[in-house]
Amino acid sequence: MSNQVWLSQLLQNRAIAVIRAPKMVWGEKMASSVADGGMHLIEITWNSDRAADLISQLRTQLPHCLIGTGTLFNVQQLQDAIAAGSQFLFTPHTDPEMIKAAVAKDVPIIPGALTPTEIVTAWTQGASCVKVFPVQSVGGTSYIQSLQAPLGHIPLIPTGGVTLQNAKDFLQVGAVAVGLSGELFPKKWVLEENWRAIALQAKNLIRTLN
């Protein structure tokens, strides 16, 4: 998938559901629930239970969604994720070799960065977008806004502190999209297997962002 197509998907959907599943069966239900709520960008973290199998299954089960992965730490994991069918790749850090490997396979890669130097480094190395993480620790929306004047040409996806209440604020100050995890999947609901509540949570988020 080209970066242009990836960016168009981000601009259409604006929010990524980040799933860290301790059980594969829960991961499948979590993904199906947010998809039912209208979310089409779903990230399965690589430290989820049987992440590769889950990604492969969701590619078939949710053909209208883009299924990617995150929490990738090295080139081997990245290559395994691509082999499993991941359509986009998130990392918590910036690794030039991982970016190079993703670019060679034409799979969008969104490395994690925090400072302006890290963000620019990731972008110049070939990142499709840059994940600003953990954004809340450095000021949240005000930090993203302050980056716009010098770095407005770089598409930023803040994570780590994005909530249902402030997600739209991040978009309004310049973020191309946001990533949410715990906010969409409260531990209590997952343990109770309250998938309907999670679907409604996703639906409310999408309504807020439109």
TrEMBL record:
It is an enzyme of class 4 (lyase). One of its GO terms (molecular function) is 2-dehydro-3-deoxy-phosphogluconate aldolase activity. Gene3D superfamilies: Aldolase class I (3.20.20.70). The lineage of its organism: Bacteria, Bacillati, Cyanobacteriota, Cyanophyceae, Nostocales. The keyword Lyase applies. Pfam families: Aldolase. Keywords: Carbohydrate metabolism, Lyase. Homotrimer. The keyword Transmembrane helix does not apply. Pathway: Carbohydrate acid metabolism. It comes from Anabaena lutea FACHB-196. This is Bifunctional 4-hydroxy-2-oxoglutarate aldolase/2-dehydro-3-deoxy-phosphogluconate aldolase. Its EC number is 4.1.2.14, 4.1.3.16. Belongs to the KHG/KDPG aldolase family.
